[in-house]
Structure formats: structure tokens, C-alpha cells
From TrEMBL:
The lineage of its organism: Bacteria, Bacillati, Actinomycetota, Actinomycetes, Propionibacteriales. SUPFAM superfamilies: Glyceraldehyde-3-phosphate dehydrogenase-like, C-terminal domain, NAD(P)-binding Rossmann-fold domains. It comes from the Bacteria. Residues 133-257 form the GFO/IDH/MocA-like oxidoreductase domain. This is Gfo/Idh/MocA family oxidoreductase.
Amino acid sequence: MGDTVRLGIIGLGAEGGMYAKLISEGKVPTMTIGAICDILPEKKQAADDLGVPFFTDYTEMVASGEVDAVVTTVPHYLHPEMGIHALEHGVHALVEKPVGVYTKQARELIDFAASKPDLQFGVFFNQRTNPLYQDLRELISSGELGKLRHTSWTITTWWRPQPYYAQSAWRATWGGEGGGVLVNQAPHQLDLWQWVCGVPRSVFAKVGYGFRRDIAVEDEVNALVDFGEGATGSFITCVHDLPGTDRLEILCDRGKVVVDDSNTVTITRLVQDEKELSASMDVDAVRRLFTGQLDRAELMTTETKDYGSVWGAQHAEVLRNFAAAVRGEEELLAPGADGIHGVRLANAIHLSSWLGREVSIENFDEDTYLSELNARITAEGTFETRS
């Protein structure tokens, strides 16, 4: 390998095009475009403009010797098979989210990647590069705020008008995409939520399928999860909220964190554990509290920080980190094996809503999920069932 990692881009759509732009503009100095692959022959012009080889078959690109690694910006069901093929032929793999549509499929890729320890296998969780979430994860894991009590994430900034779903025949179908907002728009938040707060044990969900869009898959989700030891969480997402909300709250024994729009964080730290504060407060302090005479600064401190955002910076950082991992210089920020958590939670939310009961995440019944998914694929009558 030379000084730079030669990346093969499989699928030159919106995402693949953005990665090509970032690399060609020098935003990822340790990476070059090795080749481009797309099933549409007309995309060859873009490859010609960049001066790189073009392929319509990704297996030919992998075998060409033109690439050291590939990124899979293709429909979700294809991520595992393309990742496995690349790794099988000695090429590093960076797969787009989600790593698979269902856990059995995702595990096949993850298990195969584990048999190739000399190759890098990453998942494109670009929001893990956001310093806000990196700092938040460090804060929660440090134990400074105590144990988790409750967390909620309302992420409804995914407004999609009806024509969006008409762009491709596979969109918003069980057989082509494998779901709706949970597998297309919200995987980043499903990942970050568990990355910061831990993996929940079970979930009960109420899900709307074609609630406000003419689609078969989910366009609204309300999920309640159990983290164990009394800690709970709620996750709300949809594609029909035009103004939208992005608000994450994490309540712990010694404080609270509120994140707005993924760029502003407010951290409230209690002077001592909330239960201890409650037990030690005398009657006079209670009176002053409820008459507005008690200075809340005696109980807590609050700080707010605005992290801002730069378009494309997160994606460029994932590519840079992946290239550094390939070169043996850094550990992956988002190892591919981490992708199973978001897939399993999304699957469990679906399954809970289909069965009308709480579903275990720790002991997830992936066979039942796949059976239920295939029943929906069969009802569509357009795509083959999955195994």
C-alpha cells in the first residue's frame, strides 16, 4: 500500500457522491478514490471526470487491484454481502449504516469480519465523530453524574414528502429497504443512544405503518425501553413532523444532560445525589423552595456549551479515521461489530409492535423476526424473501 488508501466507492448516489467530493477536494488527505462502481453506466462520466476506473460490477472492482478498501453506499440489504465479498478478497470494508437489515444478516458479516483480523471493518456512524457526543459519552461513562435513571430522545427532524419515496422502487418497502425511518433515517440516533447510555434489555413499542405517508413501512415510532435496575428510556421518531425536534435528555442520580439539535448541550450537576438531597431537606427549606425563596444555586450548577457544526466534517473524519486504521495508526471509532446494536434495537421495535408485547433485546428472537419480516415481503409480492 502506498502513502494513501485507495477507496472504491460502490454506488455513486447522494452519499457516494458526497464521499467522492470530499476526497477529490482533499478533505481526506490520507485517502484517494481508487475506483467507482455503479450499476448505471451513465455514472461512468463522473469516474472519467475524476480520472479513475469505472465498474458496473462490484466484484470486478474488488478483483481489479485498483482499491485497498471499499465503502458500500447501496440499498441496505446489500451491505453484508458486499462487505463479506470485499473482506473475503483481502479488501478492507467500510459499510454504510445499517450494517444489515436484520440481526441474522448483520451477524453473518460481523462474524466473517472477525475471521479476518488483519483487515479493517467499519460502519459509517459519522455522528460518533461529533465532539458533543464524544464528550457526552465520556461524561456518562465516568460516573460523575451517577447511575442512569431515565433517558428520552425525540428525533423527528426527518421530514420526507411523499415524492421522496417515489425516487426508487426499493424505497419504503419491506423487501427492498427492510423498513422505514428506523432503518433509513434514525440508525445514527439508535447507535448514539446506546453508545452513550448503554444497550437496553427490552423494548415495548407502538409503531405507525403508513400513518401519514402512503408507504408500507414505519413512518412513526414510539418505543419504551428498559435498561435494567429501574432505568428506562423512550425513543420517538417520525418522518411527518415538518418543523421537527431533536432533543436528547439523560437523567442521572446526580444531574441531568439536555442536548438540543445535536449541537447545544446543557449539563446540570446536583451538589449531591438527588435522593440524599431529598432526604436531607428540612421543612423550612421545602417552604422556601415552593415559595421561590430558595436559591437553586444551592442545589445545582448549570453549564451550556454550543458545539456548532460544519457540513461534511463528520463524514470526512470517518473516512480519515478509517484510512488511519487501515494504515495501522488508529483504532476505529466505529468498529463494524458495533453496528449490531442499532439493527437489533430496530428489529426489536418492529417485532414488539407486530406482536403487541414487550420484546427482549438481550435474548432477541431473530428467527421470529425474520419470519414476520418475510411475511410482509411476501405480501408486497415484489421482492424475494430473505434467509
